[in-house]
Prior knowledge:
The protein is mainly alpha-helical. 46% of the residues lie in helices and 8% in strands. The strands form five sheets. It has a three-stranded antiparallel beta sheet with strand order 1-9-8, with no helix packed on it. The chain has a three-stranded antiparallel beta sheet with strand order 2-6-5, covered by helices on one side. A two-stranded antiparallel sheet has the order 3-4. About 2% of the residues have low confidence.
Amino acid sequence: MQVLPHVHVLSSSYLDQHCSSCSAPAMSDMSLKRCPKCKRVYYCNQTCQNRDWAWHKNECDALQKWATAAPSEDVAVPSDAVRCLGRLLWGSQKMGFDSPWAREICMMQSHRSALPATSFESHAYLAHSLVRYLGASSPAELQPFGIQSSIDLVDLISRFVTNAFTLTSPSLTPIGVCIAPSIALANHSCSPNAVIVFPGAPGTPKNKEPLLNLIAIRDIAPGKEIRVSYIDTTLPRQIRQKSLTETYNFTCQCKLCSKPPPVDPREAVWCPKKCGGICPIPTEEDSLSRCAKCRAAVADTDAVLDATRIGQEALDKAVSLQFRDTPKAQRLTTNIIPILISAGLTPSSHPLLAMTHLHLELLIAALPSSLSQESLDDAIRTAAKYSAALQSILPKGHPTRAIALGELGKLLAVDEPAPLNASDTARPASFPPSGAPRLKLAHESLVRVYEELLIGFGRTNGGGDVGRDVREAVVRLEKEIGVWTTGVRNVLQDTPAPPRAR
């Protein structure tokens, strides 16, 4: 199923990197065109700008007034939530409050009557910001937008928070937010049979982007409900339940939550007897933890509890520093990952999995400026650990799993700054391999990636934009491996055979 969202906006940090009309990224050989009035949004070209003008016209004036009143450049652009809500209200005005477009928005579920106390402050702040963004001084002045009372305003905000989708790039990078009422009808499961992606399939017209795709990743029998995940399903059950309760006001009763496995790999430690089995991570309420295979008990439960607590605190800190102080964020991940490993956490356990992912992002971001054999190999090893961990908790074809494996394949395909020679003993023959074996491993990985992309991003989409890149990479690798093999064969043929011993 494919739909064009009712409205979509880019996050503030991506406004100058992606087109505000089709969401395409800036091309390396062509810069985006900035709106000459508000100087905040950018477009691929005049065509995209003209197409978006019906939406941006009111937004342009609002952005200028907001920036003029802003105390600093850091807050000169309102949040993506405020801007998306603004487009919803201007769209309802333009389409008509009784139009199918507006009625679909009003039919989205609101939790106004059962808002948890933890949501009061965030909803109030969003309401205040929206009123100001629209040029009003109070909710009473929002009648031209179909808002007749404060209750209507809270309803609108609740509908937005409950039903908004993250707008992503084809490679799953979160770049904004969007509203698609028909897709919002899909219910949640922590073990979904479908996913929501923006594949950016080659050949899709720009006026149809960003095209939201609802794609089945498992066989769905007739009459069975299509379920997607509203949250990150790599997280442990307790964190998932907390997020769902606070944001969506329900307790998940899916199979993974109501009948979890004896030991969930999302929250597990290795057997203390090293039998190969795993044990549940001990908790404050239940410190007794035994291996599911040999029944050996985890002795030092306090050490595990301390490590997970420190790991979570460090993860939160590193995430906040990722773009503000990247070196400090990388020092945190570098120092904390060994602590979590020494405490016995399995690679798929939280917070080790999330910390590994963040560490990988930081390593990859640093590669262009400091590419060395050591930094490249370090990134490859981290990517391999992250990909392997995801394979133990996500089904084949899940987009997150496919993208992670693709990252590993692409890193393996990067030209080695200092490849290992056959006579070189300075670098042991360990993972990752060097030379032809590395290229072959890259090829094998990317072939597997393409198979998974066809599932998670749609076979009819050819795996989307990422699938196209992977196909091209596979072809390049096949040529490179062929050249390598031919070169080795020629060298062997040109090398004189040693004289036979008499």
